[in-house]
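Hi everyone,

Forwarding the result from last night's run.
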Amino acid sequence: MSSYVHNAVIEGAGKMGVIVALESAGKDRRARPRFGRQLAMHVAATNPLALDPAGLDPAAVKREKDVLADKYRQQGKPENVIEKIVESGLKTYYKEVCSIGTGLDPCRTWRQIGRPGRKRS
C-alpha cells in the first residue's frame, strides 16, 4: 500500500488523497512503495477517468467523437477526412483521460514502468 495526500495541511489531511495497492512477484520490496507513491501522485495530478480506453464510459467517448466531428464539419472538411481526424483526436483524448498510456513521459507508460523484469529507462 502506498498513498499520497495532495496539499496536506496536517499528516493525512489535505484536498485530495489517493491510495494505491500493488502486487508484485519482484524481489526488490523497497522499490514498490516508491513506485506506488509516484503512481498515486500521478493519479492525483491527472485525475484520470479510467485505467485505459476500454474502461471509459461509452457515452463520454461518443460525446467526444461528436464534438470533434462537429468541429471539423463546421470547417468544411469532407466526411472521409473527418473520420481519420476524429480517430486521431480520440487517441489524444485517451492519453489525457486514461492512466495507462499517459503523455506524462512519451517514452514510457505506467504499464511499462510497472512491469517487473522489463528495462526501465
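The first helix runs from residue 31 to 46.

Cheers,
N.
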